[in-house]
Design brief:
The protein contains 5 helices and 10 strands. With about 250 residues, it is an alpha+beta fold. Strands 1, 2, 3, 4, 5, 6, 7, 8, 9 and 10 form a 10-stranded mixed sheet that branches. The longest helix has about 50 residues.
Length: about 250
């Protein structure tokens, strides 16, 4: 096209400056046309880049939505309602439920008598500060509410804590859940030496079922001993309640 313009200009007396400007504008127009033709490709690549960013943002959210609290986030083998599994595989653990026929009397009581021994009743909030983490579960079976809560401490004459305990009792019309915590010792009620090894993440624990309807678990976490007992709940509800402490 520029050659055709040049041939025409050779036959007419036109100022050289005008010819140069015309040729420049023609070349500019061709360049703009090429850019316009490339625009769809740029738009496609831009759309792909935006899609990749969207996936990078949305995928973690989707994964979190199926993490703890949902079926895919907790269970590999999920107990069905009205059934009991001796072994339950989790995405991040394994639970072996020991069949107990009778409970232990628990560890021997501490001798807390003597001069200078002080008994203190704390608020749950103060006890949680002492623990260094939240004690109440973030998940509860449907219909449960906090019925009782107490925190007690025994101190020596020198002020050292000899015994501490936080107990939370949750109830519904048909079920109950008791959580006992102590930093001094594990609030043990069952013989975990007879229990198979169970774990959630890197944490070991003992779990079992007593009297065909009472689920229990005992473990150490964050420098404190935990004992959890649930009556009248499904195995799935118990595992979900237990699992929330390790999240």
């Amino acid at each position: 096209m520029p050659n055709l313009y040049k041939q025409a200009f050779d036959k007419v007396e036109v100022p050289t400056e005008l010819i140069s400007k015309t040729l420049h504008r023609t070349n500019q127009a061709r360049s703009d046309l090429k850019k316009t033709r490339r625009a769809p490709r740029v738009a496609i690549f831009g759309a792909l880049a935006a899609a990749c960013i969207a996936i990078a943002v949305i995928l973690p959210i989707m994964l979190r939505s199926i993490a703890p609290g949902s079926d895919l986030g907790i269970f590999i083998t999920k107990p069905e309602a009205g059934t009991h599994l001796e072994h339950v595989e989790l995405v991040n653990g394994y639970l072996a439920f020991t069949q107990e026929t009778e409970s232990l009397e628990g560890p021997p009581p501490l001798k807390l008598g003597g001069p200078g021994i002080r008994f203190e009743e704390w608020t749950p909030e103060r006890y949680e500060e002492y623990l260094g983490f939240r004690a109440s579960p973030a998940y509860l079976p449907d219909g449960m509410f906090l019925a009782e809560e107490s925190a007690i401490v025994y101190r020596s004459a020198e002020g050292d804590i000899l015994m501490d305990s936080l107990t939370m009792l949750y109830k519904s019309d048909v079920s109950s859940l008791e959580i006992s915590i102590s930093k001094v010792r594990l609030p043990q009620r069952y013989d975990d030496e007879r229990a198979e090894d169970s774990h959630i993440g890197e944490h070991s624990l003992a779990v079992g079922i007593f009297d065909a309807g009472t689920y229990w678990a005992q473990f150490m976490l964050g420098g404190a001993g935990f004992y959890i007992e649930a009556v009248g709940v499904t195995q799935e509800e118990f595992i979900r309640t237990l699992h929330i402490f390790f999240e």
